[in-house]
Amino acid sequence: MPSATPSQPRNLDGLRERYLNSSPEDGIYLGDPTAHRKTRWLPMEGAGANGHVLAISSEDETPSPASLLAVLRITSKDNWTMPDGNWKGPREFAKHFADVKLTCTGAQPPSGVFRGDYPHVVDNLKGIQDMIAVAGCEKKKGLLVEVKRGDPSGGLKVKFQHALFEKKSDDSDGDAAESGDDEVNDGVPSIENWPTSHPKARNALTKMKDTHDLFPLPLYKQLSFESDRCKLVQPRDYCRSLSEAIVEVRFGLTHWRLKKTDEEVFSAHIQNMCLLPVPAMALPSPTKKRPRVGAEHPLSPLKRMRLESTTDAGSESLRG
Fold first, then answer.
1. Is the distance from CB of 245 to CB of 257 less than 8 angstroms?
2. Where is this region: Disordered (predicted)?
3. What is the pLDDT of residues 208-217, one digit of tens each?
């Protein structure tokens, strides 16, 4: 989410300017046509030669994972950010509730300063994929997906994911939503009160309390550009808040090479998201400022004909 600094941007233009001038350590803005040159792929720990993590391209002996940044419109289609991932039992990619990932897709904003940057976002991600993928391999999946029928954005959109649960390790501090500073975690939901919509998900969650840590979606809402504070969005509001919203997304990238199927799988892991204070393109409700009901129809067919006749006669007199 936007960081708090003395020079808080006052509008979207100022925010974009900050992105373009920030260091790679503060986030690599994909709206910059040269952004992909600031990254490199490094082997993933414990993954052999098949797994990789995108890192900042630097000469440091201790490399840092790259934090990519884009401002996108989260599409209402493919928005699977319900707090339980709409899990109702075993399915292909989530046989257990612990496997559930919240997913959504980001497309070109409909207007504004970030709309023109979107083609650079797509081109940069293509370039980043090409840096690691086997030459000639066209089976790249998971990151750039085709826009489904009915979505007005056209072309490609970016798919994001967030894993809700992680198996506890020996050195785990307990529920991730509860660990740490009480003031910082005030209002952050825990695994005990995590909302579910299906009995199977609720039963599975009860059994997972002692075996898994919960990681809520780090989704925030910036109330205005005059304020540098962002408010945490609650789980029940994830899907509604994100649908068609203009959002700053920070994410990391991983790559897996599946030799059996000859596929290159890329995943965009959400680090945090912030709903930007962009005015909605909306009209007032038709029930507001309702006119008084008159004795006559305001524009009945006969009245319309009289008005048209008067207008035609006036036009003739002007020409004469």
1. no
2. 169-198, 285-320
3. 999 999 999 9
